[in-house]
Amino acid sequence: MVSDTIAAVATAVGEGSIAVIRVSGPDSIDVVDRVFKTKRSLKDADTHTIHYGHIWDPDTNESIDEVLVSVMRAPRSFTMEDVVEISCHGGIVSMKKVLDVVLQHGARLAEPGEFTKRAFLNGRIDLTQAEAVMDLIRSKSDRAFGIARKQSEGSLSKQIQALRHVLVETMAHIEVNIDYPEHDVEELTNAFIRDKCTEAQAEIERLLKTAGQGKMLREGITTAIVGRPNVGKSSLLNALTQENRAIVTDIPGTTRDVIEEFITINGIPLKLLDTAGIRETSDVVEKIGVERSKSALSEADLILFVLNHNEPLSSEELELMEQIRHRPVIVIVNKSDLPRRLGLEQIQNTLGEHQMVLMSMKEQKGMEQLEMAISDLFFSGQLESNDLTYVTNSRHIALLKQAYQSLSDAIHGVDMMVPIDMIQIDVRNAWEQLGEITGDTAAESLLDQIFTQFCLGK
Ligand code: GDP
Ligand code: ZN
């Protein structure tokens, strides 16, 4: 049983004008009561009530900050302990003073992740939920936030538990067979094990498939802006970011480095890469840029292929079109304010199934259509927007892969007519590996490792 009282700043330092100091443990109400000046003592406060007053230092009689204090009594709190949260609004200096005075009057500074660790140890949340809390803190976009929240509500845990249930059934079946090893039972059992393991593998595979999508959402969809020099790539990047990071110029080939920029379109996070014009060149500096943009192209989840409305299609552009025709592409025909000299037929033939957007960076036209095209692609494609169970954590991914391998070993064992108690070991391994995801078989050292990754105060 945890017995001491811990405190830390629960909000990110430097973000927002209000800071929250969280205090958790059996003495949390007493501790805060000692340094809180208000009409009535906190000791009589009901659970889930908010109190207005001032934090002061009883030793120096100094008033520190005007605050709101929330009281949440055990077990109806995040840690399932008595929790008091002090919302102060005096910026970093007074926030630190408030924390100091709390620490001087009976609380100890929380270790990183200690609040979440207590929530876990007290049975409030399981490991996948705990890890999702960490992801919540870090998630960059609304959509990634939604996924993290769903996971912290336990949807991954539920699926893992269902999987483990299938494996327990299988193990029970094998156990019966070991105890009553009659021949025909064995044959039945082999078919049963094979079925169940295959079923579990398919489910793991499905979860793993979401892993790539989860990663994509957290870091943003890597988007390469490609095209010949001078078609307007940097102008597009600038328009998208509404900043002037990339240098816009009339001299072809001046965007030499790949620049990264994060933006959000209708809640979809994009990591934009502005690449040098794709073309053969002898210029050494230019060549580096071109090489980089080719590798940017290969890693891109989405390609914005920019063409010039005012110029005929070049052979390089044709070649590039061939290269990317099976990838997620949006064709952007820029400079539509100038007369058309671009043959649209060839584009139609090669990239006809992809969306095409007519734009003019100069006249600021077409941006809405481009944003629509990006959302359409996102929602029509690989991601189902209503299924938010994504595996986003590299530890989960590794364990799912291990469990998958254990099940492959079990199936192989069945096919090779390996003694059934050997197969039992593989199934058991898979069951334990899955259990590590939710923390049901987690060792103490693993717990420490996970929780120290958390931000202070969470
Ligand atoms: P990049 O080399 O592909 O990155 O192209 P830039 O964005 O540097 O643009 C090259 C030149 O084309 C600059 O002089 C821009 O002002 C100009 N430009 C960009 N977009 C348009 C457009 O829609 N219409 C016209 N007329 N000029 C444009
Ligand atoms: Zn450029």
UniProtKB/TrEMBL annotation:
<feature type="binding site">
    <location>
        <position position="249"/>
    </location>
    <ligand>
        <name>K(+)</name>
    </ligand>
</feature>
<feature type="binding site">
    <location>
        <begin position="230"/>
        <end position="235"/>
    </location>
    <ligand>
        <name>GTP</name>
    </ligand>
</feature>
<dbReference type="Pfam" id="PF10396">
    <property type="entry name" value="TrmE_N"/>
</dbReference>
<keyword id="KW-0630">Potassium</keyword>
<feature type="binding site">
    <location>
        <position position="22"/>
    </location>
    <ligand>
        <name>(6S)-5-formyl-5,6,7,8-tetrahydrofolate</name>
    </ligand>
</feature>
<feature type="domain" description="TrmE-type G">
    <location>
        <begin position="220"/>
        <end position="379"/>
    </location>
</feature>
<feature type="binding site">
    <location>
        <position position="458"/>
    </location>
    <ligand>
        <name>(6S)-5-formyl-5,6,7,8-tetrahydrofolate</name>
    </ligand>
</feature>
<feature type="binding site">
    <location>
        <position position="234"/>
    </location>
    <ligand>
        <name>Mg(2+)</name>
    </ligand>
</feature>
<feature type="binding site">
    <location>
        <position position="85"/>
    </location>
    <ligand>
        <name>(6S)-5-formyl-5,6,7,8-tetrahydrofolate</name>
    </ligand>
</feature>
<dbReference type="InterPro" id="IPR025867">
    <property type="entry name" value="MnmE_helical"/>
</dbReference>
<comment type="similarity">
    <text>Belongs to the TRAFAC class TrmE-Era-EngA-EngB-Septin-like GTPase superfamily. TrmE GTPase family.</text>
</comment>
<feature type="binding site">
    <location>
        <position position="255"/>
    </location>
    <ligand>
        <name>Mg(2+)</name>
    </ligand>
</feature>
<feature type="binding site">
    <location>
        <begin position="274"/>
        <end position="277"/>
    </location>
    <ligand>
        <name>GTP</name>
    </ligand>
</feature>
<feature type="binding site">
    <location>
        <begin position="249"/>
        <end position="255"/>
    </location>
    <ligand>
        <name>GTP</name>
    </ligand>
</feature>
<dbReference type="Pfam" id="PF01926">
    <property type="entry name" value="MMR_HSR1"/>
</dbReference>
<comment type="subunit">
    <text>Homodimer. Heterotetramer of two MnmE and two MnmG subunits.</text>
</comment>
<feature type="binding site">
    <location>
        <position position="124"/>
    </location>
    <ligand>
        <name>(6S)-5-formyl-5,6,7,8-tetrahydrofolate</name>
    </ligand>
</feature>
<dbReference type="Pfam" id="PF12631">
    <property type="entry name" value="MnmE_helical"/>
</dbReference>
<dbReference type="InterPro" id="IPR031168">
    <property type="entry name" value="G_TrmE"/>
</dbReference>
<keyword id="KW-0378">Hydrolase</keyword>
<feature type="binding site">
    <location>
        <position position="251"/>
    </location>
    <ligand>
        <name>K(+)</name>
    </ligand>
</feature>
<keyword id="KW-0547">Nucleotide-binding</keyword>
<dbReference type="InterPro" id="IPR018948">
    <property type="entry name" value="GTP-bd_TrmE_N"/>
</dbReference>
<feature type="binding site">
    <location>
        <position position="230"/>
    </location>
    <ligand>
        <name>K(+)</name>
    </ligand>
</feature>
<dbReference type="InterPro" id="IPR027368">
    <property type="entry name" value="MnmE_dom2"/>
</dbReference>
<protein>
    <recommendedName>
        <fullName>tRNA modification GTPase MnmE</fullName>
        <ecNumber>3.6.-.-</ecNumber>
    </recommendedName>
</protein>
<keyword id="KW-0819">tRNA processing</keyword>
<keyword id="KW-0963">Cytoplasm</keyword>
<keyword id="KW-0342">GTP-binding</keyword>
<dbReference type="InterPro" id="IPR027266">
    <property type="entry name" value="TrmE/GcvT-like"/>
</dbReference>
<dbReference type="InterPro" id="IPR006073">
    <property type="entry name" value="GTP-bd"/>
</dbReference>
<keyword id="KW-0460">Magnesium</keyword>
<feature type="binding site">
    <location>
        <position position="254"/>
    </location>
    <ligand>
        <name>K(+)</name>
    </ligand>
</feature>
<dbReference type="InterPro" id="IPR004520">
    <property type="entry name" value="GTPase_MnmE"/>
</dbReference>
<comment type="function">
    <text>Exhibits a very high intrinsic GTPase hydrolysis rate. Involved in the addition of a carboxymethylaminomethyl (cmnm) group at the wobble position (U34) of certain tRNAs, forming tRNA-cmnm(5)s(2)U34.</text>
</comment>
<keyword id="KW-0479">Metal-binding</keyword>
<dbReference type="InterPro" id="IPR005225">
    <property type="entry name" value="Small_GTP-bd"/>
</dbReference>
<dbReference type="InterPro" id="IPR027417">
    <property type="entry name" value="P-loop_NTPase"/>
</dbReference>
